[in-house]
């Protein structure tokens, strides 16, 4: 059993998670916005402006059987990561009904992360409607975990050939968990160990994950990061948090 399912400290209850996240976010100066309701659970976004600073977007919880990413954002929030270095845009739990059930899909059995083109799910529709009122982002992170992977890996979408953060992120992950070395990762050829760099035109894809929608409409430097779900929850959270911390430091050191 995954440790999160047995731990009273990390319940699979969207209301409990969202309550903890809201309390920490409001204490840190964020504004909360409800952009939808699924069953009894609100779809919540948190923003914190910083004029003149880079705009950074992070999301998690689009797959309900991936609990480490939402808890990673909460950990970072509680640790003061979301400070005045950037303007922040957070969507911590996009699939609350799947989170409660421990399923990849939502309550209707649909994968929200394949629906950002067709927009058949209420979650994706509501999320896109919220995103349409947001600015273009300078940096995007979609946070996931993978039940089939043996190590950490990432997707990089960087059509503008901006300085990559990928190797810095891998180095941070390597401190806590293995790197995925398979030649085929998640059904795609790896560019190098632990890195997938899709090159196909997103307009040709029949289905869009969140990252493709964001690439098309909201920014040109995006990372989907994936920790291996076989590791203990605490290790997954630590890995993801360390990767995000290293990436942000490196990003902010780049000339603008």
Describe the structure.
The protein has a single domain (3-253), classed as Zn peptidases (Aminopeptidase, 3-Layer(aba) Sandwich), CATH 3.40.630.10. Helix 3 crosses helix 8 (233-253). By secondary structure, the chain is of the alpha/beta class. It contains eight helices and ten strands.
- Mean pLDDT, to the nearest integer, reads 93
CATH names the topology as: Aminopeptidase
Multimer state: single chain
Helix content: 25-40%
CATH architecture: 3-Layer(aba) Sandwich
* Number of domain units: 1
Beta-strand level of the residues, as a percent range?
15-25%
Largest sheet: 8 strands, mixed
What is the fourth-level CATH superfamily? Zn peptidases
- SS class: alpha/beta
What is the count of helical runs? 8
Gyration radius, in Å: 17 Å
Topology record:
Blueprint: H1 3-6, H2 14-27, E1 31-38, E2 41-48, E3 55-59, H3 68-78, E4 87-91, H4 96-101, H5 122-131, E5 139-146, E6 153-157, H6 166-174, E7 184-185, E8 188-189, E9 195-196, H7 210-217, E10 222-228, H8 233-253
Parallel strand pairs: 3-4, 3-5, 5-10, 6-9
Antiparallel strand pairs: 1-2, 2-4, 6-10, 7-8
Q: Keywords, please?
A:
single chain, 256 residues, alpha/beta, Aminopeptidase, 8-stranded mixed sheet, 8 helices, globular, disordered N terminus
Q: What's this model, at a glance?
A:
The protein is of the alpha/beta class and 256 residues long. The chain has eight helices and ten strands.
């Amino acid at each position: 059993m995954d440790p999160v399912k047995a731990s009273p400290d990390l319940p699979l209850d969207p209301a409990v998670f969202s309550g903890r996240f809201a309390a920490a976010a409001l204490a840190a100066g964020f504004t909360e916005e409800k952009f939808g309701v699924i069953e009894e659970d609100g779809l919540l976004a948190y923003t914190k402006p910083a004029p003149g600073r880079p705009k950074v977007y992070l999301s998690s919880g689009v797959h309900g059987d991936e609990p480490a990413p939402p808890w990673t954002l909460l950990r970072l929030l509680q640790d003061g990561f979301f400070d005045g270095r950037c303007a922040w845009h957070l969507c911590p739990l996009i699939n609350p009904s799947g989170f409660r059930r421990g399923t990849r899909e939502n309550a209707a059995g649909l994968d929200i992360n394949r629906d950002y083109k067709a927009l058949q799910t209420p979650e994706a529709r509501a999320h896109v409607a919220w995103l349409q009122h947001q600015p273009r982002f300078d940096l995007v992170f979609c946070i996931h975990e993978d039940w089939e992977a043996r190590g950490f890996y990432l997707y990089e979408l960087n059509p503008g050939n901006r300085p990559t953060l990928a190797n810095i992120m891998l180095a941070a992950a390597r401190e806590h968990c293995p790197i995925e070395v398979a030649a085929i990762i998640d059904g795609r050829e790896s560019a190098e160990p632990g890195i997938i760099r899709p090159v196909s035109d997103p307009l040709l894809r029949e289905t869009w994950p969140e990252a493709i929608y964001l690439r098309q409409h909201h920014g040109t430097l995006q990372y989907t990061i994936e920790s291996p779900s076989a590791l203990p929850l605490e290790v997954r959270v630590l890995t993801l948090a360390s990767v995000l911390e290293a990436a942000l430091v490196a990003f902010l050191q780049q000339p603008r």
